[in-house]
Write a structure and sequence with these properties.
The structure holds 2 protein chains of 2 kinds.
Chain A lengths: L2 E5 L7 E4 L11 E3 L2 E4 L2 E3 L8 H8 L3 E4 L4 E4 L3 H9 L7 E3 L5 E3 L7 E8 L2
Parallel strand pairs in A: 1-7
Antiparallel strand pairs in A: 1-2, 3-4, 4-5, 6-7, 8-9
Chain B lengths: L7 E8 L3 H11 L5 E4 L3 H6 L6 E5 L5 E7 L7 H4 L4 H11 L20 H18 L3 H14 L4 H10 L7 H12 L16
Helix pairs in contact in B: 5-6, 6-7
Classes of the chains: A alpha+beta, B alpha+beta.
Amino acid sequence: MGSTLIDAEDLARTATEVDGTHPERAVGWERKAQGLCRDDVCVPVPPGDLDLAGVAAALGRPLVVDEEAGVAAMGASPETRRRPLADGVAPDFTLPDLTGRDWTLSQFRGTKVVLYAYASW
Amino acid sequence: MELAPEGLTVLTVAFDNDPEDARPWIERANPTHPSLIDTNYVLADLYNMVNVPTVVWIDEEGQIVRPNDVFFVTDTYSALTGFRPEKPIEALRAWVTGTGPAVSGEAASARPPQPTERDQLARAHFALGWWLAQQGRRDEAEPHLARAGELAPHDFTIRRGSMRVRGKDPAGPEFFEMVADWTHSGHDYYAPLPDLASES
């Protein structure tokens, strides 16, 4: 049965339909002989096909499955989020302004930046 | 923020359901700095921001030199938070002009707060609930929003963002009740880093 997976590590919060085969592809990984791979990184996994829970476990990422709603979300691993913060590195991001123009934090390298997060509520 | 000394970039980011919610705020302020919209709370996830407003100071090399801190531009919430803007604004000017540190005293050892496994599980529930709510599936969203708040009761970005989905006012009576419950159980609400905190 198909369901929707929200990739909550991805800043665009991509929602992908997954049908049970190769669920790793929905979060941008490929199954290879070495394990789960993305770019130059591979993570070892047990033999055999992985289900969504197996992918989440291998990547150390939290998974929430709502079977009734037919939706799941895989969050960012604590390790992925901790690493830059532990090194004091400002995590990079790209977000739009009201006109739809995208801005990226790292484009301001070379100036001091005050990042101010608020909510209109 | 009417404060953009030479060499400082101010970037504001609004957490909102819809860019249109932020539009009147941004247009009223008529800022000269980039005013960004984050409809998915991704900045809160990246920087482990557990309340708003939150400010982070970043140097020329992209290093966080003053981690997540309370910062209100006005003193609207002074009574609740004890926050007053004068000292932080003075300190910001000094840092930008190279005449003062970004952090001092015991705050100098402060590191950006780092998320636990539980925090990230809470954010996964919130992401799922948020997505469902944006699809108009509020009843299905609710258990995930509730679970996120249970897992991370200190995360007021999640808890107040969830109130917004429920049609409650995140700065209204339910919010003040939430804060009262939190402080009565012995927790600090949204404590600023000590060096720029106002004398109470």
